[in-house]
Design a protein that fits this description.
Blueprint lengths: L4 E2 L4 E10 L11 E10 L2 E10 L3 E12 L2 E12 L14 E9 L4 E10 L2 E9 L6 E5 L1 E2 L14 E6 L4 E2 L5 E9 L14 E7 H6 L6 E9 L9 E4 L4 E3 L2 E11 L11 E10 L7 E5 L9 H4 L7 E9 L2 E8 L3 E9 L3
Parallel strand pairs: 1-21, 11-16
Antiparallel strand pairs: 2-24, 3-4, 4-5, 5-6, 7-8, 8-9, 9-10, 12-14, 13-14, 14-15, 15-16, 17-19, 18-19, 19-20, 20-21, 22-23, 23-24
Length: 346
C-alpha cells in the first residue's frame, strides 16, 4: 500500500455542537436528518441535509445556517430541493436521494452535487448541478468508462461516498481533468486489494465538460487510492467531505467502520463509524502522503451514540465561516453536528 502513517498529523477537529435535529412535526424527517452537503450562495451559508422519512425514504433539503459569534449554531429550514422522483431514484420497495456532497467548482461557476440514487438497481451515484443551491439540474446516473487494462467493470458495482475536487488536476495520462473520489462496493480482491470497500479516484477531462456539462457523469481512469489499514477501519473506509486544498496537499477527511453487518438491512445496528484524515499529493491526488492512525473524531456524545444507527460520526462537508473551517457531520444517522477544523503544531 502507498499509505504513510503519521503520528503527528497536522490537523484535528474540535466539537462545537448540534446544529440540526429532526422536526417531529415533519413526516419527511421522521427517521432523521443527517449527512449534509454545504455551500455559500448570495452571501449566505446553507446546508443541504439528507431528510429521511418513514421507510428509509430520503430527500435533500435546504437550510440556511444561523451563525453567531463566528460559529454555526442552528438552521432555518427552507424546504426540499431534491426528491426521489426519477426512475433511477425509485425502486419497487425503496426510494431515495441520499448523502449529497456538494463541491463549488469556480472554473464552471457551478455547485456540483453527487448523491446516491437508491432505485431499482440499488445504490448508484448520480450528479446534479446548480448555480444557487436551490434549483438543481439532474445530469443523470454515473457511467464508468471501461478500459482494456481495467481489473473490474465498475458499472457492475454499487457505489457511494462520491465527491469532486474543487479544481482541475492532471490525470495520470496528463489530461487536465476534474477528479472525483468514490467507494465501489463488493469488489473482488486483486492487485494488493483485499476486497474490503475502499477509496478510488476517477477523472473527467475538462475539455469534455466545457463542451457539455453532462460529461460530468462519464468517469474514466479509475484507480485505487487507499483501503482499510487500522483496527478502527476494519470493515471499510470511504470518503467524507470534498477535499480541501491545504499547504501540504489535499486534505481528505474519511470514515472508517468496524463492527458487523446484518445482511439485507439498510439501517445497521451493530457498526461503529469514526472519522480520520489523509493528505493526498497536490499534483497526483491518487497518492497518499500522510494518514492518521487513530480517529480524529469518534462517537462520544449522546447524539453520536444513540439514534437511527447508533455510534456514528460521518463527516460530509467542510466550509469556512469568517476564515475558520468547520466540519458538518451526521450523528447516529439522526442529527447533524458541527466541529472546528484546526491546525496542530505538527
Amino acid at each position: 500500500m502507498n499509505d504513510v502513517v503519521s503520528e503527528d498529523f497536522p490537523y484535528r477537529v474540535e466539537r462545537v455542537g448540534v446544529v440540526m435535529q429532526p422536526d417531529p412535526s415533519d413526516p419527511n424527517e421522521a427517521e432523521g436528518v443527517l449527512n449534509p452537503a454545504a455551500g455559500w450562495a448570495d452571501g449566505e451559508l446553507y446546508l443541504l441535509p439528507r431528510l429521511v422519512a418513514s421507510g428509509n425514504i430520503s430527500r435533500v433539503g435546504l437550510a440556511r445556517v444561523v451563525v453567531e459569534d463566528g460559529r454555526p449554531v442552528g438552521i432555518e429550514r427552507l424546504g426540499v430541493v431534491l426528491q426521489p422522483d426519477r426512475t433511477w431514484e425509485r425502486g419497487p420497495n425503496n426510494a431515495g436521494v441520499e448523502d449529497p456532497r456538494v463541491t463549488w467548482v469556480p472554473s464552471l461557476g457551478l455547485h456540483v452535487m453527487t448523491y446516491v440514487a437508491y432505485g431499482a438497481a440499488g445504490p448508484r451515484t448520480a450528479v446534479a448541478v446548480s448555480s444557487d443551491l436551490r434549483t438543481w439540474r439532474r445530469l443523470g446516473p454515473v457511467v464508468y468508462r471501461w478500459e482494456e487494462d481495467a481489473e473490474v467493470d465498475l458499472n457492475l458495482h454499487h457505489n457511494k461516498d462520491t465527491l469532486f475536487f474543487p479544481e482541475p488536476v492532471n490525470a495520470p495520462d496528463g489530461e487536465p481533468s476534474f477528479a472525483v473520489l468514490h467507494r465501489p462496493m463488493e469488489l473482488p480482491s486483486a492487485s494488493g486489494r483485499d476486497g474490503r470497500e475502499s477509496i478510488w479516484i476517477s477523472f473527467v477531462p475538462v475539455a469534455e465538460v466545457e463542451k457539455d456539462v453532462r460529461a460530468l457523469t462519464v468517469w474514466r481512469g479509475h484507480r485505487f487510492v487507499a483501503g482499510p489499514q487500522f483496527d478502527w477501519e476494519a470493515l471499510k473506509i470511504g470518503g467524507g467531505p470534498p477535499p480541501v486544498r491545504v499547504p501540504e496537499g489535499w486534505l481528505l477527511l474519511h470514515h472508517g467502520v468496524t463492527g458487523s453487518w446484518d445482511p439485507g438491512r439498510d439501517q445497521q445496528q451493530h457498526v461503529h463509524y469514526a472519522a480520520g484524515a489523509m493528505i493526498l499529493d497536490a499534483d497526483e491526488p491518487w497518492r497518499v502522503l500522510r494518514r492518521t492512525s487513530e480517529p480524529l473524531l469518534a462517537p462520544e456524545s449522546e447524539e453520536e451514540r444513540a439514534g437511527t444507527v447508533p455510534n456514528v460520526v460521518f463527516p460530509t462537508a467542510i466550509i469556512e465561516v469568517d476564515g475558520q473551517p468547520f466540519v458538518f457531520y451526521g450523528m447516529a444517522d439522526s442529527s447533524i453536528g458541527v466541529a472546528r477544523l484546526l491546525r496542530t503544531n505538527a
